[in-house]
């Protein structure tokens, strides 16, 4: 049985301009699961993971990573933001972006050296992007950009990986490549949290799921809670899991 | 004085040397820091800050009653910083978007500054004459101590950029990720904004509040066109900035009554125009040429593929065919046959053409390889 808790969210409430985006969320993510966060647009999925990462300050509640606040545990966590959140016309190369994954362990001021470059190249190889290492990032396809972001997180060698819609706008090959890496991470005992949109693939890709729509609807193993009832509660319309599966 | 005379005098004449050095240093500082403002899509922040400095200049004069440039710049610095904090405050605390906040603060501070300026100019005191020079700047008023101050700011900016190079790069590419790695992005933000405010303040005397933002943006925008490397971009921006300063000073010194600030800004704008048209990777000219070439290639590929369709029905792929049978197909001209022959895809013999093995190979792979288009 999974006993250790990787991420613990307590009474978390987040609001933008007085409008609550997340309302009183309690959530425990056991170590070693591959968890999907699902919910309709505007359900607060991205906000939830940004609050976990201490990027957004909640108006109430707290988040603990392995029992301590994020500030003390940032080396344990790797974040893969939404691909669309950055300007891909930034003057830099694929390798350089992946090297950014080493900056956290380097800390302030210290520059990346040979060791960091080696790690970055290894990560690029893992995502199948080694031959594109010197490519200007604006000349990469959407799927390739996503893999670069994944490689950047892999370089961090964290225990927890938090990803915001890594499958958005990527082709089938990239999706397979990404999911294989996620499953490999789980095999290594890492915890992976993914904001996910494609309900059909939830049972195939993930073993843990959280239903979110401003409030937490349900959280647990896919086997136990991925059903009509929770889908309907989350999305407000009748979903038939039988059809999805 | 001709431009040649200017350049022979620039090393010996005290005034010319001071002004040229000052504008060059200003160009370097603005080029370096402007690169970050441009990459962050905060181009307008510089404009707002420089306009926000105006009331500070006038108030500093009202308080001290003297036109000492350093005290006036301290006033500019303070009111520029207040403007910046208000802008950031409006963005984080209200529903207003950043362009609204920038526009609001810019006009509010500038309006207030102009009001104070007209008030001061009506005062019965000869001292205030020339305060309006801060609107468009007057490089001729630069003295050696001003240049030392500019040099100091340049040194500070350089050291800070070198020390926090990795952090600034990371933050300007992906701020949220920077936070997730445990870096204090607020600190980085404050440092960068402070540097930008400083660079604007030291430029007010030379270029003035109205045109100052162009000094920040133009060299950086021009530099971005030539490179995909951040360090090279910043270096080029500094070079463009320095040359804008030097040439601008040279032109204004050699033609009577041409105000230095506007000339410098125009030179910088000239760099931008040249870069937008002629830079090889991103320039409009080469983009258009590539576009034509692609269209041309596409036509050729269509013709080649048509030939391949004919040739593949024969055992010998190089079996000659009459040019006439291409007539039904609109995509061929004498020129296109010649280009195909030049590329050794076909051989033309009088009124007959035949596909070469190379052309055959190319035609087969034409629609298999997506990469073809990128080559």
From TrEMBL, chain A:
Q: Does the keyword Nucleotide-binding apply?
A: yes
Under Pfam families, the record lists: ABC_tran
Against SUPFAM superfamilies, the record matches this protein to: P-loop containing nucleoside triphosphate hydrolases
InterPro entries, per this entry? AAA+_ATPase, ABC_transporter-like_ATP-bd, ABC_transporter-like_CS, Metal_Ion_Import_ABC, P-loop_NTPase
What keywords appear on the UniProt entry?
A: ATP-binding, Nucleotide-binding, Transport
Q: Which residues form the ABC transporter domain?
A: 7-239
**CDD domains, per database record:** ABC_Metallic_Cations
GO molecular function annotations of the record: ATP binding; ATP hydrolysis activity
Q: Which family does it belong to?
A: Belongs to the ABC transporter superfamily.
Task: From the Swiss-Prot or TrEMBL record, give the protein name.
Answer: Manganese/zinc/iron transport system ATP-binding protein
Automatic annotation (TrEMBL), chain B:
In the UniProt record, the signal sequence range is none
> Per the record's keyword annotation, is Cell membrane included, yes or no?
yes
Q: Name one Pfam family in it.
A: ABC-3
Annotated protein name in UniProt: Manganese/zinc/iron transport system permease protein
Q: Which UniProt keywords apply?
A: Cell membrane, Membrane, Transmembrane, Transmembrane helix, Transport
Q: Which SUPFAM superfamilies match?
A: ABC transporter involved in vitamin B12 uptake, BtuC
UniProt similarity note: Belongs to the ABC-3 integral membrane protein family.
Q: Which organism is it from?
A: Arenibacter nanhaiticus
Family matches, as PANTHER family? ABC-TRANSPORTER METAL-BINDING PROTEIN (PTHR30477), METAL TRANSPORT SYSTEM MEMBRANE PROTEIN CT_069-RELATED (PTHR30477:SF3)
TM segment ranges: 21-39, 45-64, 71-89, 101-120, 147-165, 190-218, 230-251, 263-285
Give the location in the cell. Cell membrane
GO CC annotations, alphabetized: ATP-binding cassette (ABC) transporter complex
* Example GO BP: transmembrane transport
Principal localization? membrane
The record's listing under InterPro entries reads: ABC_BtuC-like, ABC_TroCD
Q: Does the keyword Transmembrane helix apply?
A: yes
Record membrane topology? Multi-pass membrane protein
């Amino acid at each position: 049985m999974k006993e250790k808790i990787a991420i613990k969210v307590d009474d978390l409430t987040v609001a933008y301009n007085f409008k609550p985006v997340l309302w009183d969320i309690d959530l425990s993510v056991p170590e070693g699961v591959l968890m999907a966060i699902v919910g309709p647009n505007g359900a607060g999925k991205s906000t939830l993971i940004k609050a976990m990462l201490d990027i957004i300050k909640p108006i109430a509640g707290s988040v603990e990573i392995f029992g301590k606040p994020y500030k003390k545990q940032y080396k344990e966590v790797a974040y893969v933001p939404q691909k669309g959140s950055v300007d891909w016309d930034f003057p830099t190369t694929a390798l350089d972006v992946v090297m950014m994954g080493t900056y956290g362990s380097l800390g302030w001021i210290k520059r990346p050296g040979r060791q960091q470059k080696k790690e970055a190249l290894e990560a690029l190889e893992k995502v199948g992007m080694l031959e594109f290492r010197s490519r200007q990032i604006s000349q990469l396809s959407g799927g390739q950009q996503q893999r670069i972001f994944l490689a950047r997180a892999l370089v961090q060698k964290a225990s927890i990986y938090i990803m915001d819609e890594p499958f958005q706008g990527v082709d089938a090959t990239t999706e397979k490549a990404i999911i294989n890496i996620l499953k490999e991470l789980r095999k290594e005992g890492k915890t992976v949290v993914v904001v996910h949109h494609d309900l059909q693939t939830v049972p195939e890709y993930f073993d843990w799921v959280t239903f979110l729509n401003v409030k937490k609807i349900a959280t647990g193993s896919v086997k136990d809670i991925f059903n009509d009832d929770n889908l309907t509660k989350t999305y407000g319309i009748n979903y038939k899991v039988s059809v999805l599966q | 004085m001709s431009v040649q005379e200017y350049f022979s005098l620039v090393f010996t004449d005290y005034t010319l040397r001071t002004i040229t050095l000052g504008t060059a240093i200003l160009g370097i500082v603005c080029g370096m820091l402007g690169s970050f403002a441009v990459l962050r899509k905060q181009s307008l922040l510089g404009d707002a800050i420089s306009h926000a400095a105006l009331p500070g200049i006038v108030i500093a004069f009202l308080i001290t009653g003297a036109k000492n440039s350093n005290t006036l710049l301290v006033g500019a610095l303070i009111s520029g910083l207040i403007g910046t904090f208000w802008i950031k405050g409006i963005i984080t605390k209200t529903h207003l978007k950043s362009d609204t906040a920038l526009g609001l603060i810019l006009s509010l501070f500038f309006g207030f500054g102009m009001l104070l300026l007209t008030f001061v100019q009506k005062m019965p005191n000869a001292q205030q004459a020339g305060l309006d020079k801060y609107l468009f700047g007057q490089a001729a008023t630069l003295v050696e101590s001003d240049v030392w101050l500019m040099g100091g700011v340049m040194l500070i900016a350089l050291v800070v950029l070198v020390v926090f190079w990795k952090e600034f790069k990371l933050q300007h590419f992906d701020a949220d990720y920077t936070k997730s790695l445990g870096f204090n992005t607020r600190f980085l933000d404050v440092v960068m904004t402070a540097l930008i405010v400083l660079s604007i303040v030291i430029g007010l005397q030379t270029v003035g509040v109205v045109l100052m933002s162009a000094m920040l943006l133009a060299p950086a925008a021009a530099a971005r066109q030539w490179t995909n490397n951040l360090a090279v971009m910043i270096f080029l921006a500094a070079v463009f900035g320095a040359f804008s300063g030097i040439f601008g000073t040279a032109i204004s010194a050699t033609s009577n009554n041409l105000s230095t600030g506007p000339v410098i800004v125009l030179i910088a704008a000239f760099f931008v125009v040249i870069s937008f048209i002629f830079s090889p990777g991103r320039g409009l000219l080469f983009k258009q040429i590539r576009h034509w070439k692609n269209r041309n290639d596409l036509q050729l590929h269509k013709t080649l593929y048509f030939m391949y369709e004919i040739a593949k029905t024969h055992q010998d792929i190089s079996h000659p065919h009459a040019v006439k049978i291409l007539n039904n197909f609109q995509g061929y001209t004498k020129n296109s046959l010649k280009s195909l022959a030049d590329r050794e895809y076909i051989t033309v013999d009088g009124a007959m053409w035949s596909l070469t093995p190379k052309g055959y190979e190319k035609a087969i792979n034409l629609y298999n390889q997506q990469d073809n288009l990128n080559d």
